[in-house]
């Protein structure tokens, strides 16, 4: 387990575990992806928004 905080998308609780302790659903990282100026697909990702 890494020390990054994770978030359950079902009930929006925060935890360090890979599985939510409340609803037992898998959690996802609560942090955004790291920015890179050499991102080849950044233009396309911004156009979709």
Automatic annotation (TrEMBL):
- Show the GO cellular component annotation of the record: ribonucleoprotein complex
Short name of any one Pfam family annotated for the protein: Nop10p
Keywords assigned: Ribonucleoprotein, Ribosome biogenesis, rRNA processing
Which SUPFAM superfamilies does the record cross-reference, listed alphabetically? Nop10-like SnoRNP
Tell me if Iron is a UniProt keyword of this record: no
Has keyword Nucleotide-binding?
no
Q: Which terms in the Gene Ontology molecular function aspect does this entry carry?
A: snoRNA binding
Read off the InterPro entries from this record: H/ACA_rnp_Nop10, H/ACA_rnp_Nop10_sf
Q: Which GO terms describe its biological process?
A: pseudouridine synthesis; rRNA processing
State the family named in the UniProt similarity comment for this chain: Belongs to the NOP10 family.
Report what the protein is called.
RNA-binding protein Nop10p
